[in-house]
Amino acid sequence: MELVVQSLSADYTHALGYNLGKVLRGGDVVCLSGDLGAGKTALAKGIGEALAVQEPMTSPTFTFQIEYAGMAKDKPVRLIHMDLYRLRYPEEVEIIGVEDVFQEDAICLIEWPGIAEDILPDDSLTIRIEGSGEEPRLIGFSSQGEAWAERLKDSMLFEDQEDL
Ligand SMILES: Nc1ncnc2c1ncn2[C@@H]1O[C@H](COP(=O)(O)OP(=O)(O)OP(=O)(O)O)[C@@H](O)[C@H]1O
Ligand SMILES: [Mg+2]
């Protein structure tokens, strides 16, 4: 599956995250790629809002991982937001325990997932954001197989593109 949408503002990227968040459930792993300042955390915050996370979400750049309590379709879920930017060696991925968070009661968002690519589940969703600064963003959604295509269709992610 491969889909691309355009985002002309941080608010729109947040709204895309919100719509995506509404179709997420425990066990999902979402990888967020793109340059520094692309909008990965902006999108993650939209997901957190959709999952009724009450605390303000901050960037886990220095802590690697922050866990929030959320709700997905009226069921409690853990939202685990990771940022692997500062990792240099795959061994560190193991030490931090990235694999341990892939649990059925957790939705996992991973910024800078490259270093962990060998352990990412086959059914994860990858979001790649191109552009930075005040440039428009092209936001690509890709996955192995077509299951995510069905779910994204249900998310209204691709409606209202003309209203950007
Ligand atoms: N269309 C857009 N989508 C997302 N962010 C945008 C857009 N246009 C401008 N911005 C700005 O770009 C910045 C994105 O910052 P954000 O922290 O989300 O990036 P990031 O990809 O998480 O970076 P990092 O790799 O440092 O964690 C924000 O300041 C936001 O206001
Ligand atoms: Mg970030």
UniProtKB/TrEMBL annotation:
Q: Does the keyword Methyltransferase apply?
A: no
Q: Which SUPFAM superfamilies match?
A: P-loop containing nucleoside triphosphate hydrolases
Q: Which Gene3D superfamilies match?
A: P-loop containing nucleotide triphosphate hydrolases (3.40.50.300)
Q: Any idea which GO molecular function terms this record carries? A: ATP binding; hydrolase activity; metal ion binding
The record's Gene Ontology biological-process terms are: tRNA threonylcarbamoyladenosine modification
Its localization reads: Cytoplasm
GO cellular component, alphabetical, reads: cytoplasm
Keywords on record: ATP-binding, Cytoplasm, Hydrolase, Magnesium, Metal-binding, Nucleotide-binding, tRNA processing
Q: Which family does it belong to?
A: Belongs to the TsaE family.
Tell me what this protein is called.
Answer: tRNA threonylcarbamoyladenosine biosynthesis protein TsaE
According to its UniProt entry, this protein's organism is Desulfitobacterium hafniense (Desulfitobacterium frappieri)
